[in-house]
Amino acid sequence: NTMPRFVPPTRAAVVGESMALNPRTARAAAARKEGPEQQAACARAAQHHAALTTIASADGTDGVVGADGSPLFFPPVPRPRPGDWLAENQELGQSFVKYAKQTGYSVAQPHGPFDTIAIVLLMPVGDTDVPQLPAKLPRELKDYIEAFYAPLRVEVVSQPVLVVSGPKDEPKGLRTKDTVRVPYIGSANGVMGVPQVAFGELLRHATAAVSKRPDLRRRVVMTMGLTTLDITLDNGHNNWVYGAARPTDSAGVFSLVRFRPEFAGEDPQSSSA
After folding, report:
1. How far apart are CA 161 and CA 81, in angstroms?
2. pLDDT, tens only, 121-154
3. What's the pTM value of the predicted model, to 2 decimals?
4. Sorted alphabetically, which InterPro entries does this protein's record hold (predicted)?
5. Are 177 and 69 members of one domain?
6. Sign of the CA dihedral 98, 99, 103, 107?
Protein backbone atom coordinates (compact mmCIF):
# COMPACT_ATOMS: atom_id res chain seq x y z
CA ASN A 1 0.00 0.00 0.00
CA THR A 2 1.14 3.49 -0.76
CA MET A 3 1.24 5.60 2.37
CA PRO A 4 1.58 9.38 2.23
CA ARG A 5 4.97 10.63 3.32
CA PHE A 6 4.83 12.63 6.53
CA VAL A 7 6.30 16.12 6.29
CA PRO A 8 7.23 17.31 9.80
CA PRO A 9 5.80 20.80 10.23
CA THR A 10 7.99 23.55 11.55
CA ARG A 11 7.23 25.02 14.96
CA ALA A 12 6.16 28.25 13.32
CA ALA A 13 3.73 26.39 11.10
CA VAL A 14 2.16 24.57 14.04
CA VAL A 15 1.82 27.74 16.09
CA GLY A 16 0.52 29.69 13.13
CA GLU A 17 -1.99 27.01 12.15
CA SER A 18 -3.22 26.79 15.74
CA MET A 19 -3.68 30.55 15.90
CA ALA A 20 -5.28 30.57 12.46
CA LEU A 21 -8.02 28.18 13.57
CA ASN A 22 -9.10 30.79 16.09
CA PRO A 23 -8.17 34.26 14.78
CA ARG A 24 -9.98 35.84 17.73
CA THR A 25 -7.10 34.68 19.91
CA ALA A 26 -4.67 36.83 17.96
CA ARG A 27 -6.98 39.84 18.10
CA ALA A 28 -7.57 39.36 21.83
CA ALA A 29 -3.84 39.19 22.47
CA ALA A 30 -3.34 42.43 20.54
CA ALA A 31 -6.16 44.09 22.50
CA ARG A 32 -4.45 43.21 25.75
CA LYS A 33 -1.44 45.22 24.60
CA GLU A 34 0.99 42.38 25.02
CA GLY A 35 4.71 42.98 25.12
CA PRO A 36 6.91 43.20 22.01
CA GLU A 37 7.53 39.42 21.87
CA GLN A 38 3.85 38.58 22.14
CA GLN A 39 2.95 41.21 19.56
CA ALA A 40 5.53 39.81 17.17
CA ALA A 41 4.14 36.28 17.66
CA CYS A 42 0.62 37.53 16.95
CA ALA A 43 1.82 39.35 13.85
CA ARG A 44 3.52 36.21 12.55
CA ALA A 45 0.35 34.21 13.25
CA ALA A 46 -1.76 36.76 11.36
CA GLN A 47 0.61 36.63 8.40
CA HIS A 48 0.51 32.85 8.49
CA HIS A 49 -3.28 32.88 8.57
CA ALA A 50 -3.39 35.18 5.56
CA ALA A 51 -1.02 32.89 3.68
CA LEU A 52 -3.15 29.80 4.21
CA THR A 53 -5.16 28.74 1.21
CA THR A 54 -7.47 25.83 0.71
CA ILE A 55 -7.11 23.69 -2.35
CA ALA A 56 -8.92 20.63 -3.64
CA SER A 57 -6.70 17.58 -3.65
CA ALA A 58 -6.96 14.70 -6.08
CA ASP A 59 -9.57 12.79 -4.06
CA GLY A 60 -11.87 15.79 -3.58
CA THR A 61 -10.90 16.65 0.00
CA ASP A 62 -9.41 19.92 1.15
CA GLY A 63 -5.73 20.27 1.81
CA VAL A 64 -4.01 23.04 3.76
CA VAL A 65 -0.97 24.51 2.05
CA GLY A 66 1.32 27.45 2.55
CA ALA A 67 1.68 30.49 0.33
CA ASP A 68 4.21 28.64 -1.84
CA GLY A 69 1.81 25.74 -2.39
CA SER A 70 3.74 23.29 -0.21
CA PRO A 71 1.73 21.16 2.25
CA LEU A 72 1.97 22.17 5.89
CA PHE A 73 1.37 18.69 7.26
CA PHE A 74 0.80 15.89 4.75
CA PRO A 75 1.09 15.99 0.97
CA PRO A 76 -2.09 15.16 -1.00
CA VAL A 77 -2.91 11.45 -1.17
CA PRO A 78 -1.77 10.09 -4.55
CA ARG A 79 -4.22 8.46 -6.94
CA PRO A 80 -4.99 4.94 -5.61
CA ARG A 81 -3.43 2.00 -7.41
CA PRO A 82 -4.68 -1.61 -7.53
CA GLY A 83 -4.24 -3.16 -4.11
CA ASP A 84 -4.37 0.14 -2.21
CA TRP A 85 -6.99 0.57 0.47
CA LEU A 86 -8.57 3.54 -1.29
CA ALA A 87 -8.90 1.54 -4.48
CA GLU A 88 -11.10 -1.00 -2.71
CA ASN A 89 -12.87 1.15 -0.12
CA GLN A 90 -14.70 4.44 -0.37
CA GLU A 91 -13.36 7.04 2.08
CA LEU A 92 -14.80 10.53 2.30
CA GLY A 93 -11.53 12.00 3.54
CA GLN A 94 -10.95 14.67 6.14
CA SER A 95 -8.71 17.71 6.17
CA PHE A 96 -6.93 18.96 9.26
CA VAL A 97 -9.21 21.99 9.40
CA LYS A 98 -12.34 19.80 9.28
CA TYR A 99 -10.91 17.55 11.97
CA ALA A 100 -10.15 20.54 14.16
CA LYS A 101 -13.66 21.91 13.78
CA GLN A 102 -15.31 18.58 14.53
CA THR A 103 -13.24 17.92 17.64
CA GLY A 104 -13.49 21.47 18.96
CA TYR A 105 -9.73 21.94 18.73
CA SER A 106 -8.64 25.56 18.60
CA VAL A 107 -5.56 26.78 20.41
CA ALA A 108 -3.71 25.25 23.31
CA GLN A 109 -4.93 26.45 26.66
CA PRO A 110 -2.48 27.50 29.40
CA HIS A 111 -1.20 24.31 30.93
CA GLY A 112 1.34 23.32 33.50
CA PRO A 113 4.07 20.75 32.88
CA PHE A 114 2.85 17.37 31.65
CA ASP A 115 4.60 15.26 34.25
CA THR A 116 2.00 12.90 35.72
CA ILE A 117 0.16 9.73 34.71
CA ALA A 118 -3.08 9.32 36.64
CA ILE A 119 -4.26 5.81 37.54
CA VAL A 120 -7.93 5.84 38.55
CA LEU A 121 -9.15 2.81 40.51
CA LEU A 122 -12.67 2.08 39.27
CA MET A 123 -13.67 -0.47 41.89
CA PRO A 124 -17.19 -1.61 42.76
CA VAL A 125 -18.54 -1.37 46.29
CA GLY A 126 -21.30 -3.30 47.99
CA ASP A 127 -22.40 -6.91 47.62
CA THR A 128 -20.96 -7.99 44.27
CA ASP A 129 -19.13 -11.04 42.95
CA VAL A 130 -16.38 -8.91 41.48
CA PRO A 131 -12.91 -9.75 42.83
CA GLN A 132 -10.98 -6.89 44.35
CA LEU A 133 -7.52 -5.80 43.31
CA PRO A 134 -4.68 -7.15 45.42
CA ALA A 135 -3.84 -4.50 48.01
CA LYS A 136 -0.23 -4.21 46.82
CA LEU A 137 -1.04 -3.97 43.08
CA PRO A 138 -1.58 -0.18 42.83
CA ARG A 139 1.75 0.48 44.54
CA GLU A 140 3.60 -2.07 42.40
CA LEU A 141 2.02 -0.69 39.23
CA LYS A 142 2.95 2.84 40.25
CA ASP A 143 6.59 1.83 40.84
CA TYR A 144 6.78 -0.03 37.53
CA ILE A 145 5.30 2.77 35.40
CA GLU A 146 7.46 5.43 37.07
CA ALA A 147 10.57 3.33 36.36
CA PHE A 148 9.56 2.63 32.75
CA TYR A 149 8.41 6.17 31.90
CA ALA A 150 10.88 8.11 34.03
CA PRO A 151 10.89 11.00 34.79
CA LEU A 152 7.06 10.95 34.69
CA ARG A 153 5.28 10.52 38.00
CA VAL A 154 2.24 8.37 38.75
CA GLU A 155 -0.59 9.37 41.04
CA VAL A 156 -3.21 6.82 42.10
CA VAL A 157 -6.74 8.21 42.39
CA SER A 158 -9.45 6.22 44.14
CA GLN A 159 -12.91 6.49 42.56
CA PRO A 160 -15.34 3.87 43.95
CA VAL A 161 -17.99 2.67 41.52
CA LEU A 162 -21.38 1.37 42.58
CA VAL A 163 -22.64 -1.16 40.06
CA VAL A 164 -26.42 -1.54 39.77
CA SER A 165 -28.88 -2.25 36.97
CA GLY A 166 -31.27 0.50 37.99
CA PRO A 167 -32.24 2.84 40.83
CA LYS A 168 -34.54 0.22 42.42
CA ASP A 169 -31.69 -2.26 42.70
CA GLU A 170 -29.37 0.11 44.50
CA PRO A 171 -28.41 -1.26 47.93
CA LYS A 172 -29.31 1.07 50.74
CA GLY A 173 -26.63 2.86 52.70
CA LEU A 174 -23.98 2.67 49.97
CA ARG A 175 -24.77 5.88 48.11
CA THR A 176 -22.37 8.61 49.26
CA LYS A 177 -20.78 11.67 47.72
CA ASP A 178 -17.78 9.51 46.82
CA THR A 179 -19.68 6.85 44.86
CA VAL A 180 -21.21 6.88 41.40
CA ARG A 181 -23.88 4.64 39.90
CA VAL A 182 -22.88 2.71 36.80
CA PRO A 183 -25.53 0.54 35.14
CA TYR A 184 -24.33 -2.86 34.03
CA ILE A 185 -25.27 -4.37 30.69
CA GLY A 186 -25.27 -7.99 31.81
CA SER A 187 -23.00 -10.68 33.16
CA ALA A 188 -19.79 -11.67 31.44
CA ASN A 189 -20.86 -14.90 29.74
CA GLY A 190 -22.45 -15.92 33.00
CA VAL A 191 -19.01 -16.65 34.48
CA MET A 192 -18.76 -15.67 38.13
CA GLY A 193 -21.72 -13.35 37.61
CA VAL A 194 -19.26 -10.50 37.00
CA PRO A 195 -21.17 -7.40 35.83
CA GLN A 196 -20.25 -6.17 32.37
CA VAL A 197 -20.04 -2.41 31.98
CA ALA A 198 -19.82 -0.20 28.89
CA PHE A 199 -16.40 1.27 28.19
CA GLY A 200 -17.80 4.78 27.73
CA GLU A 201 -19.37 4.77 31.19
CA LEU A 202 -16.12 3.81 32.91
CA LEU A 203 -14.05 6.22 30.84
CA ARG A 204 -16.39 9.07 31.75
CA HIS A 205 -15.96 8.42 35.45
CA ALA A 206 -12.20 7.97 35.15
CA THR A 207 -11.72 11.35 33.48
CA ALA A 208 -14.21 12.97 35.86
CA ALA A 209 -12.17 11.78 38.83
CA VAL A 210 -9.16 13.66 37.45
CA SER A 211 -11.21 16.73 36.50
CA LYS A 212 -12.29 17.11 40.10
CA ARG A 213 -8.65 17.73 40.98
CA PRO A 214 -7.54 21.01 39.34
CA ASP A 215 -4.03 20.57 40.72
CA LEU A 216 -3.80 17.17 39.01
CA ARG A 217 -5.78 17.98 35.86
CA ARG A 218 -3.23 20.54 34.65
CA ARG A 219 -0.34 18.10 35.04
CA VAL A 220 -1.78 14.87 33.63
CA VAL A 221 -0.37 13.59 30.37
CA MET A 222 -2.72 10.59 30.36
CA THR A 223 -5.40 8.92 32.49
CA MET A 224 -5.61 5.16 32.95
CA GLY A 225 -8.66 3.61 34.56
CA LEU A 226 -8.12 0.24 36.22
CA THR A 227 -11.00 -2.06 37.14
CA THR A 228 -12.02 -5.64 37.84
CA LEU A 229 -15.35 -5.18 36.08
CA ASP A 230 -15.71 -6.78 32.68
CA ILE A 231 -15.71 -4.25 29.84
CA THR A 232 -17.68 -4.19 26.63
CA LEU A 233 -17.43 -1.60 23.88
CA ASP A 234 -20.30 0.76 23.22
CA ASN A 235 -20.53 -0.07 19.51
CA GLY A 236 -21.76 -3.62 19.98
CA HIS A 237 -19.00 -5.09 17.80
CA ASN A 238 -17.28 -6.84 20.70
CA ASN A 239 -18.95 -8.64 23.58
CA TRP A 240 -15.91 -7.98 25.75
CA VAL A 241 -12.47 -6.36 25.64
CA TYR A 242 -9.48 -6.31 27.96
CA GLY A 243 -9.45 -2.56 27.63
CA ALA A 244 -9.88 0.37 25.30
CA ALA A 245 -8.67 3.95 24.95
CA ARG A 246 -9.87 7.21 23.47
CA PRO A 247 -6.88 9.13 22.04
CA THR A 248 -8.72 12.47 21.92
CA ASP A 249 -9.15 12.27 25.70
CA SER A 250 -5.68 10.84 26.38
CA ALA A 251 -7.45 8.27 28.51
CA GLY A 252 -8.22 4.58 28.61
CA VAL A 253 -9.75 1.92 30.84
CA PHE A 254 -8.41 -1.60 31.35
CA SER A 255 -9.87 -4.60 33.12
CA LEU A 256 -7.95 -7.27 35.02
CA VAL A 257 -10.89 -9.57 35.76
CA ARG A 258 -10.19 -12.05 32.97
CA PHE A 259 -6.67 -12.54 34.26
CA ARG A 260 -8.03 -13.74 37.60
CA PRO A 261 -8.08 -17.55 38.11
CA GLU A 262 -11.61 -17.32 39.55
CA PHE A 263 -12.89 -16.06 36.20
CA ALA A 264 -11.99 -19.36 34.54
CA GLY A 265 -13.38 -21.35 37.42
CA GLU A 266 -9.96 -22.17 38.86
CA ASP A 267 -8.96 -22.22 42.49
CA PRO A 268 -7.55 -18.76 43.35
CA GLN A 269 -5.11 -20.42 45.77
CA SER A 270 -3.52 -22.34 42.90
CA SER A 271 -2.22 -19.19 41.26
CA SER A 272 -0.48 -16.05 42.44
CA ALA A 273 -2.40 -13.94 39.90
Report:
1. 51
2. 887 765 556 667 778 888 899 999 999 988 899 9
3. 0.56
4. MetalloPept_cat_dom_sf
5. no
6. negative
